[in-house]
Amino acid sequence: MTAGIPLLEGGCHCGAITLAFSTALVPASTAARACDCSFCRAHGAAWLSDANANAQLIVHAHRPEHLRRYRQGSETAQFLLCGACGVLVAVVFDEDGDTYAAVNAGCLAARETFAPAVTASPQTLAPAEKTARWRQLWIRDVQIQA
Ligand SMILES: [Zn+2]
Questions:
Q1: Centroid of ligand 1 to alpha carbon of 13 (angstroms)
Q2: pLDDT tens-digit readout, 33-73
Q3: Coil, strand or helix: which one is 13?
Q4: What letter does residue 132 receive in the DSSP assignment?
Q5: Alpha-carbon distance 144 to 18, whole Å?
Q6: Most CB atoms closer than 10 Å: which of 2, 30, 62, 91?
Q7: CA distances from 73 to 39, 70, 78, 127, 141 (A)
Q8: 135 near 76, Cβ under 8 Å?
Q9: HSE on the CB side for 106, CA within 13 Å?
Q10: What is the C-alpha to C-alpha distance for residues 100 and 31, in angstroms, rounded to an integer?
């Protein structure tokens, strides 16, 4: 975690995977993005991220065998799911040795304090536009501990 930055904690339902999202975002004025692709809709996922340099996400798999990765659509991003309880916790994207991520807002303990989610349609973007958007919006300091 980053010193001086509020920490939002969360994780999957069974506790096998926990999330620690350090961010200065103010929940009441931050709306998660409800992606309208078929996979995110099936999960009811809405994504939060913070591209500021002091933001950080730690995904910790207390039971590493339950950390599942799934690619869909353009297969550019990887969804992180718990193999035990099935909850979708985060999405990550690797490029040039850097990892970018967004968090599924529903997995954070503070989920009720965020502004209502807004719909986003990344599936309408070309692959290069999509990755450019993620580099711009997603968390840049990402650690996956498994
Ligand atoms: Zn779980």
A1: 5
A2: 999 999 999 999 999 999 999 999 999 999 999 999 999 77
A3: coil
A4: H
A5: 10
A6: 91
A7: 9, 10, 10, 10, 25
A8: no
A9: 14
A10: 19
Rounded to 5°, the CA angle 142-144-146 comes to 170
Give 60 Cα–ligand 1 centroid separation in angstroms.
12
Contact 11, 89 (CB under 8 A): yes
- Ligand 1 centroid distance, CA of 59 (Å): 12
pTM attached to this predicted model: 0.93
Distance CA(104)–CA(59), nearest Å, equals 12
Could you report the per-residue pLDDT of 16-44, keeping only the tens digit for each? 999 999 999 999 999 999 999 999 999 99
Question: ∠ CA(39), CA(108), CA(7), 5° rounding?
Answer: 135
The one-letter amino acid code at 38 reads S
**98 CA distance to ligand 1 middle (Å):** 26
